[in-house]
Amino acid sequence: MYRDHMDIAYDKDILIKPTSRVPMIGREYGYYTGPGNPLFSLGGGLVRSILYYILTKYHVRRGYYVVETPIIARTTLYELTGHLSFYRENMFLLDIEGDQYALKPMNCPYHVLIFMNLLEKYSHKIKLPFKVFELGKVHRYEISGALKGLMRVRGFTQDDAHLFAREEQIADLFLSVFNDLKDLYEKLFHMSITAESVKLRISLSDKSKIGEEYMGSPEEWSVAEEKLVKMAEEIHRRYGIEYFAAEGEAAFYGPKLDVIALLPDPETGGKKEWQIGTIQFDFNLPRKFKLNKLLEKTHGVSDIYMIHRALLGSIERFLGVYLEAYQGRLPYVLSPVQAVVIGIKSGGDRDTEVVNYAEQVASKLQEMDVRAVASSIDRPHLSGYVRKIRSTLHPSILIYIGERELESGKISAALYDFSRRNYKKITLESMDDLEALIDEAEKDIRELIGNPPKYYVDVSYMV
Ligand SMILES: [Zn+2]
């Protein structure tokens, strides 16, 4: 049965539905939060904080520096970048003590300021390419009629990064960013990035609107767009992934390569296209900030380019897309409930022992920082109960404890296999084998970032 991502997120205590009502007060939550401003609950806090940890470690291991920049800025900053003339209608503007401020719509200008200060302070000791990463919260105005659940919101967090490099470094850098994207999707989210599952959209300018909607000269746009097409060709050569051009879809500062994924559409049983990551090429911002002049002083080079990229895009939207496409099935490491240990009662004398044993197994998992929960059910209701747990909580691990397990000391488990999209049965010889089971569940994420985050919290309230 198809479920909307908001219903799924609600079941997993990821968020509060804006249309439900605040108890006692009676008004809807959305009345207080305003539209397009999702309020996350405990499951959402968990998923997001673990994801932030993974993304941070992942980027640091790839040579990015991490920053955190203010949520508001004086509009003078966006005057300097050109946002105020090219992006004004998407910005939330505030008046404070007669001065104009904006809620940050993009992180880039702050990243450039940080880079410039480093260059002045440490000169050539700052190496090129320079890569800076931020889980940056941005706010962009969208008309209320366009807002939709987590898919389209007014405030969201980007897994945003900016790379500064010389012209000769750009091609390699661009391809390494694409490889990073592939690695992240495949090892964290179990989504394959192949010719069958993705295509690339090269978002180009509309030549008739250069100077009006796009910053820079027609010649500069042509050079940048040609470079981008070459990169798409190289990705096609390496992975067979197709690309197509879309005129008039570029950012105001440069052309971009958007990754479009073909994901399951449970509503129709077919497939649906979603934009996931984006890699953008910018020849405007470095010049606006006189970065080329500064780098000439510090590094003796002036051919500086900037890449803007987000692998997931907006965390909120990606979560919405992922929950909907896979109907709530999150990767093991992100799932609020990772394991459920079910004691199966048969109405006999040993029921208490069965329940205790299930609790012992859950405690052992909790000691290993696994978000495990013990629960018990009468045997006649077992299959319905398991079906419900599988379809609402989606634990990667299910463990069954009955009289047979009590006698043999063995444990019957089921581990979700993301490549087959089904559970596979595993028999553990004893409790000692639980560690090997967890290792297997963590195999892919270990390949990505080394030791995965271990966050135990009591999630028994959900079962
Ligand atoms: Zn940017």
Question: What do you see in this structure?
Answer:
38% of the residues lie in helices and 26% in strands. The protein has 463 residues and is an alpha+beta fold. The chain has 2 domains: 321 residues, BirA Bifunctional Protein, domain 2 (2-Layer Sandwich), CATH 3.30.930; 131 residues, 3-Layer(aba) Sandwich (Rossmann fold). An 8-stranded mixed beta sheet has the order 3-7-8-13-12-11-9-10. Strands 15-14-16-17-18 form a 5-stranded mixed beta sheet, sandwiched between helices. Helix 1 crosses helix 11, helix 6 runs parallel beside helix 10 and helix 7 runs antiparallel to helix 16. The longest helix has 22 residues. The mean pLDDT is 95. It binds zinc ion. Zinc ion binds next to loops.
Can I get a quick summary?
This protein is of the alpha+beta class.
